[in-house]
Amino acid sequence: MARLLIVHHTPSPSVQTMLESVLSGARNEDITGVEVDTRPALGATVPDVLAADAVVLGTTANIGYMSGALKHFFDTVYYPCLTDTAGLPYSLYVHGNSDTTGAVRAVEGIASGMSWQRHRPPVTVVGDPDGDDRDSCWELGAVTALAALEHAGEE
Ligand SMILES: Cc1cc2nc3c(=O)[nH]c(=O)nc-3n(C[C@H](O)[C@H](O)[C@H](O)COP(=O)(O)O)c2cc1C
């Protein structure tokens, strides 16, 4: 069984909508053989990451950066996972109310430092997620679940 780990910071209904769409895509019935686990960013652990075949990261934009919760996640797992998770596929969704650029840059910088492989461009939403945004999140979840399957097959 491949494992997809979703590490998210979800402080409001808008961000919950994005998470639910990602989950729905990752767990859609056309994808078999992938276990999908969700962890709030403040509760995700080193063993969670070491067991993952792909990761979806979800965060809000806060003061031009990722959320403190996701930063804490990276502070927790960076060195313990640095050697063993090189090449791990990941994807990212970000919610903000004005500008998500700094949050995307920050996450991609750290993920790149860990040698994780960005699986596709991030989904960014400003304001209330509409139908297209939900579809983009759904697709992000689905394709990252498939990446987990592929990565598990390579090991
Ligand atoms: C302290 C603080 C800083 C924030 N900084 C940013 C920011 O730099 N860029 C942005 O787009 N939104 C920013 N926001 C808005 C949050 O990203 C937004 O509240 C969050 O995504 C949840 O969305 P919602 O409030 O519409 O439900 C900030 C919010 C707070 C509380």
Characterise the protein shown here:
The protein is of the alpha/beta class and 155 residues long. The protein has a single domain (2-154), classed as Rossmann fold. Helices cover 46% and strands 25% of the residues. The protein contains five helices and seven strands, in the order βαβαββαβαββα. The protein has helices spanning 13-26, 46-50, 68-82, 101-113, 131-154, and strands spanning 2-8, 34-40, 54-62, 65-66, 89-96, 117-118, 123-126. Strands 1, 2, 3, 4, 5, 6 and 7 form a seven-stranded mixed sheet that branches. Strand 5, helix 4 and strand 6 form a beta-alpha-beta unit. Helix 1 (13-26) crosses helix 5. The longest helix is centred in the C-terminal third of the chain and has 24 residues, at 131-154. It is globular and about 40 Å long. The mean pLDDT is 97. Bound molecules: flavin mononucleotide. The site of flavin mononucleotide has 15 residues, from helix 1, strand 3 and strand 5. This is NADPH-dependent FMN reductase. InterPro entries: Flavoprotein-like_sf.
CATH architecture verdict: 3-Layer(aba) Sandwich
Question: What gross morphology would you assign?
Answer: globular
Please report the distance between the alpha carbons of the first and last residues.
12 Å
Instruction: Specify Rg, calculated over alpha carbons.
Output: 14 Å
Q: Give me the CATH fold name.
A: Rossmann fold
Largest sheet: 7 strands, mixed
Sequence of secondary-structure elements = EHEHEEHEHEEH
* CATH level-4 homologous superfamily: Flavodoxin domain
Overall mean pLDDT stands at 97
Number of helices: 5
Uncertain segments are none
Amount of beta strand: 25-35%
Bound molecules: flavin mononucleotide
Number of domains: 1
* Share of helical residues: 40-55%
User: CATH top level?
Assistant: Alpha Beta
Extended strand count:
7
Secondary-structure-derived class: alpha/beta
